[in-house]
Automatic annotation (TrEMBL):
Subcellular location: Endomembrane system
Stretches assigned to the HTTM-like domain: 76-351
Keyword field contains Membrane: yes
Protein's name in the database: HTTM-like domain-containing protein
């Protein structure tokens, strides 16, 4: 006589491997070793339930690793380096040379539109350093106060204290002078961007290394690197606009622009240097090569912050030589110094500045005599 199997009989059944099988089935009719069904009916090695793991995304892993490296870099690498000091010093030097070597009556040129020579128009223009003292006949005094502030910036004393005065002076020159060029506008913009960066600089001298960065608050580090990023974006935008806009000018697009520039007495250097340059540019291949070379260099500087270190070093040398050539041939010394300053922070990363400074210090450090 045949009997019907009970639940207890089912629980007592064994598999081919001799493992007791729970009578409770999984979603697809299979059983786990201890009767606990998994999400898809599969069994773990010890009979426990497992969750279905999502597939791994290689791109997500790469992004995560990149962010992790960036976070470690920001936390461990101080951006308060002598390169920051050199950038601030060159920007200040450019404005200082303009104030020292440009006579007051040319820096603040009188005209029918501006009889006093000092542009104090607009809502904020009246707060310029040169407008505050112009009515009282203190324009010359304001000029030398500005020079004094810029001297302190060049020397590098207490960068956190001179950050705002530096911007205020450059902004005042840009706002009030009637003889400014693009250099003063860029100088005011860059010094404004650097304010939050330099305000958290605790060094007494901006030519020194930052020894206390490891103990700084993480938010201070984020502020500093965000300011660097904004500074780099500004410089990239300047080079992008400078290069792309030139293609809309016929003389730049056909490669003859520099020949025309050198024919302009305002920008051509004095003789005999000027005559020699004009003679060389009479050869069309030379003119085309120099003109297109200028465009190529400016375009290559747009993404230059992302190049490898050897490429950035080469680009930096070419950029410095280019700006010095512009200064020597066209007399735009102030503008060229500002662009060189911008290139330093654009192309030299903080850890590279630290390594460079350490190398210079090691090579210039006097040898210590062995103690017997």
């Amino acid at each position: 006589m045949t009997t019907t199997s009970t639940d207890d009989d089912a629980r007592g059944a064994v598999t081919a491997r001799g493992v007791p099988v729970d009578a409770r089935a999984t979603a697809d009719g299979r059983s786990t070793a201890d009767g606990e069904a998994t999400a898809d009916g599969r069994t773990t090695a010890d009979g426990g339930a497992t969750a279905l793991q999502p597939p791994q995304d290689p791109e997500s892993d790469t992004r995560g690793a990149t962010l992790s490296r960036l976070e470690r870099y920001i936390v461990s690498t101080s951006p308060f380096t002598p390169v920051l000091g050199a950038t601030r010093a060159l920007i200040a030097l450019a404005t200082m040379l303009t104030l020292i070597f440009t006579p007051t009556n040319q820096l603040f040129f009188r005209s029918d539109a501006i009889p006093s020579g000092v542009n104090c128009g607009g809502t904020l223009g009246q707060f310029s350093l040169f407008c505050l003292g112009s009515d009282a006949g203190l324009l010359e005094l304001s000029r030398w106060v500005a020079v004094l502030v810029l001297v302190l910036v060049v020397i590098g004393i207490a960068p956190a204290i001179t950050a705002v005065p530096h911007w205020y002076v450059t902004w005042s020159v840009m706002t009030s002078s009637t003889a400014v060029d693009g250099g003063e506008h860029l100088s005011a913009s860059l010094t404004l961007i650097l304010i939050p960066f330099v305000l958290v600089d605790r060094r007494r001298w901006h030519w020194s290394m930052d020894r206390g960065y490891a103990q700084r608050n993480v938010w201070v580090k984020c502020v500093a690197y965000c300011a660097i990023g904004l500074f780099i974006a500004q410089v990239m935008g300047v080079y992008f606009q400078a290069s792309i806009a030139k293609f809309g000018v016929l003389e730049w697009s056909d490669g003859t622009a520099l020949w025309y520039w050198m024919q302009n007495p305002t920008f051509s250097p004095p003789d005999p240097f000027g005559s020699a340059i004009q003679a060389v540019l009479q050869f069309l291949p030379v003119t085309v090569a120099v003109t297109y070379g200028t465009l190529l260099l400016q375009l290559s500087l747009v993404p230059a912050a992302f190049y490898s270190r050897p490429v950035r070093q080469t680009i930096l040398i070419l950029a410095v030589l280019f700006h010095l050539a512009v200064a020597a041939t066209m007399g735009l010394w102030s503008f060229s110094l500002i662009m060189i300053a911008a290139d330093l922070l654009l192309l030299i990363r903080p850890h590279e500045s630290t390594q460079l400074t350490a190398t210079i210090h090691w090579k210039t450090r006097p040898l210590r005599k062995d103690v017997a």
